[in-house]
Amino acid sequence: MPDYHDDLRLAHVLADAADAVTMERFKALDLKVETKPDMTPVSEADKAAEELIRGQLQRARPRDAILGEEYGIEGTGPRRWVVDPIDGTKNYVRGVPVWATLISLMEAGEGGFHPVMGVVSAPALGRRWWAAKGSGAYTGRSLSAATRLQVSKVERLQDASFAYSSLSGWEEQGRLDGFLDLTRACWRTRGYGDFWSYMMVAEGSVDICAEPELSLWDMAAPAIVVEEAGGLYTGLDGTPGPHSGNAAASNGLLHRELLGHLNRRR
Fold this sequence. Notes:
Blueprint: H1 5-25, E1 33-35, E2 41-43, H2 44-60, E3 65-68, E4 72-74, E5 79-87, H3 89-94, E6 100-109, E7 112-122, E8 127-132, E9 136-142, E10 145-148, E11 161-163, H4 168-172, H5 176-185, E12 188-190, H6 194-203, E13 208-211, H7 216-228, E14 232-234, E15 247-250, H8 255-262
Parallel strand pairs: 3-5, 11-12, 11-13
Antiparallel strand pairs: 1-2, 3-4, 5-6, 6-7, 7-8, 8-9, 9-10, 13-15, 14-15
Helix pairs in contact: 1-2, 5-8, 6-7
């Protein structure tokens, strides 16, 4: 099993640098925000954080490729860093503290690229989560001050807590009826949204979560954290990993029921 400790240490350094940039501009009255062609917002902090991460990666890992939300793919090779400078930009620009920088490393393998390391850093929440393949998933202030993550052992949907982001995407895909049936079947539902739902699955405070439309940079880091915490991370079609354009994550025990509900179309 390869050792990703050096890559994990680097990712923490990158996350520290990004946190400094994003926190400095969080709630700034003069924050500049633009609308991208897909009608989603991008702030000056998104761009600055990704530029900073790219610059440090180019110096520290010049042979590795980099894929980022704001500036696309650069480089080739069997190792690819995937970066979302601010996951939850709509929260960020409105002053809601639920947003994070996502940094992951993917390696070429059978069937394409697969996450082998990931860091999710949410400085406005004062939280950080990370994982490396074969080494487990953790949360804490630093590599040396960390608690190991473990998914829940809830076995029945009627006892489960379900986290999601919004309703609109489910309706657009004709999946809303199944989604609503799932919410009725669960003990509790909350719209925590974005990265946070997956991190709560990893730490066992939520049992299942799902989103209908996502990009690779939204999913690569959360996927390895959930998997290393003992959970399952797939597309809505059940394909393992972060490549399906949507996601379902669970403690593993409830995954079949989760997918069953969300694949019931009207």
